[in-house]
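[job 4471] stage=fold_predict status=RUNNING
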Amino acid sequence: MDGFLLVNKPAGLTSHDVVYKLKKKLNCDKIGHTGTLDPFADGLLILCLGKATKLAHLFSNLDKVYTGTIIFGNHYDTYDVTGKIMMSKTPSFSIQSFHQAIDSLQGTYDQIPPMYSAIKQQGRKLYEIARSGIEVDRASRLVEIKRFEATSALLHDEISFIAEVSKGTYIRSLAVDLANRLNTYAALKYLTRISVGNYHIKDAKSISDITVEDIITLEDFFKDMNRVILNDYMVKLVQNGVYLDGRQTDTDYPFIVTDMTGKPIAYYEVLSPCLYRPVVIF
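[job 4471] inference complete, writing structure tokens
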């Protein structure tokens, strides 16, 4: 049971909750996720099963697309409406100012993550520190907002949006930063992750509907990757985890080793120029 699952996570569950439920349902001990989705959010969560748990890093740099709703007027400690209201201010910005502010956030900028996040600081996750009632300084991180658009009119201090963002972007922080540019407060009311790279929520299934037939196998996942064909002698070495070098191939990209019949044997990544390490042996 090696491969990937596209899960439509419901709001109210942590990513760990989803992993736990599917471990029990599929009777699979080795399942992990490729990036957490906030408990209050719903949408696409990609899971790795079996040998594919060694491949979670392949998803870490992929862009993500979210839809959601921002509500103005209150600042919450969690940056979403599930938290505690810390400050309030009646919004008084114009539609023109709103569009200028949302446009100004597109591109790259230094974003400070929320306290309620899984980032570690001095060995502790920030949300663990926040639950103790403590707020600490957080290092900013450079993020890229590739698309940030309103998808509804501003009504009752709420507006819906779509955002395409780079790795490491917190949409909760994006909502707070938008409000800062409008001299007010805001938080996320709803959030849905609709895609991760080329993987889309339309292809995901609920926890209750998922079966083993929905697993994206390693063979399917790597079907378009470069191949290096080796003879039977080398295949046996590959199956034992041997590193490859310039005698077998000269490439700057990951590849699949196959035998002479085209059967996939292992997935390799570049360790250094002309040196390649096996990551997964099929």
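[job 4471] summary: The chain has three domains: 3-62+198-220, 64-196, 222-281.
[job 4471] exit 0
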